[in-house]
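Re: the 673-residue chain
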Amino acid sequence: MTIWYGGDYNPEQWPREVWDEDVTLMQRGGISLATVGVFSWARLEPRPGEYDFAWLDDVLDTLHAGGIRVDLATATASPPPWLAKRHPETLPVTEEGVRLAVGSRQQYCPSSPVYRDRARQLVTRLVERYAQHPALELWHVNNEYGCHVSHCYCEVSAAAFRTWLEAKYATIEELNRAWGTAFWSQHYDAFDEVEPPRAAPSFRNPTQLLDFDRFSSDELLACYRSEVEVIRATSEVPITTNFMGFFKPVDYWTWAREVDIVSDDTYPDPADPLSAPYAAMVRDLMRSLGDGAPWLLMEQSPSAVNWRPQNAAKAPGQMRAWSYQSVARGADGILFFQWRQSAAGSEKFHSGMVPHGGTDTRVWREIEQLGGELRRLSGDQVGLEGSRVPAQVAIALDWDSWWALEQPASPTNVSYLETLFAWHHALTSQGVTVDFVRADGDLSGYRLVVAPAHFVATDAQLENLASFADSGGTLVVGFGTAITDEHLHVRLGGYLGEPLRRTLGVWIEEFAPPAAPDLRAVGGGAAPSVALDGEVLGGSAAGSIWAEYVRVEDAATVATFADGALAGWPAVTRRGGDASAAWYVATLPEPDALRHLAARVLADAGVELPPAAATGANLEVVRRGELVFVINHGAEDAELLLEGTDLLTGHPSQGAKLHPQGVAVIDGMQRLG
């Protein structure tokens, strides 16, 4: 076995004589996998029904001769201009009614039967020709589904939406009940009266918006399934499509069941000091989507990207450090976009493994170094590939809650993703590895589960969370949870719902999110922040984003709101004994306070913090299988404390210096718990 290493390869952008040089450089750089054909539809089918595979034959044969495996894309992510010219109805339409044009990419309506049919025809030809090619390692379907067009509002999509709704609700009466159409005279008499939630005079129906989010994710998945059906009929080679981290428009819990290997595209910003911990959260999600199985980093940048307002280059060693972060958190492959930096087109300033400056450059030297190291870490002797990342802690993630909580006409401007990150960072900064889970999934393998801002909650989810705590697990429930059911109907009689109300020993009388422009003053009070007090928070602290009037029935108040309209009301509560506990947190404490709280609930759950792996700040320590990864994201040298052998240097680890952006992969008798 080997750790895949490589990138997105676009030889059609270059003269034929460059291709042989590419393979030579790939061998030199330790490249083992090349993604081919992602944006090649116009080259493969220059005119309707006329196919040109000769150049692709040459590419695959050349790569195979050089010992490079191929991740072959279906090329359907960017239809050729002729499709729009002959079938303008395949072009997507925005909610304002603007039909998008050619000249970019992803210019297709996901519901278009014409697009799907033409895509299937192309995939059929590709599979017939290459299913038995000796270089084929992986099928790569489409590319970054929904990246630019996640929702289409055209008439074709409208008809598909009605069909989806009829399958979901069966009768128009049930749709009216679920959508609450008695409000604002929105009652429908038949499904053919229903339209997508296009631009409207005022707030649109919330459940209609949520269903259209669900429908849009499902329509993209239907496009994927259509191509997969063609591939699976002939080929047994694994299939993937590249996810995009925490991508709001697509419910990856549903999608993850459809791929053989979870793969991800992620581009942390080198200029953002929180990029490393945020990227760690993304890696943990990818591992979790595959139930802990190894995953593939399909795309990252060797240095700068081209699409931010300011495109910072990665610092020396940062690409390597962030690559090892992926490996530490479960990746069995490290790929980039792209192999050779383009000389023309919209992404010509996006860095490549072979940059504009060629091989006498820092970027290439780092690419070559990482390739050599990954090659040495591959194989049964090290035991890295296929190994898993143990976790005793999980965070419940829910796309319905994400979609609904951030709708217009909601209580306040809450970022669901920022709330998740706050909790994830508070836990992982203490050396704890975190999985993500569905609230109605199997929680039995965890000691601690955190459910932040789980706004949309089904009865099954509430029962499952409550059962986890009642069975001895430690549960933390965050603000804004179980305010509505899956149809966005408010849970009356006090928010939280009966199962959680009983388990937590509290119910929510009213929410009072911050009212000041800075989103920190509470309940109309004059205080610039939500003041909190309690030893579990490290003393006095500030909260933000949200606050609630918490009614305690059978729980202990361990932190309170200190001033404003909520002064004296519970901010953090705990119910339970020594073995387990159920916590409720009615605001988002500031980072230091949240870290104090996380330490307390970890202790409640019996999760032992690992021993210090090194001196210094901003260190990331992760155990994978029998190896311990230590990454120095800080600005100062760190000294390794763990006894063992650093597999990257071959030297004893204890006492060794780890420079900024430095990495150690430690094998030895001393293990982290």
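The longest helix spans residues 206-232.
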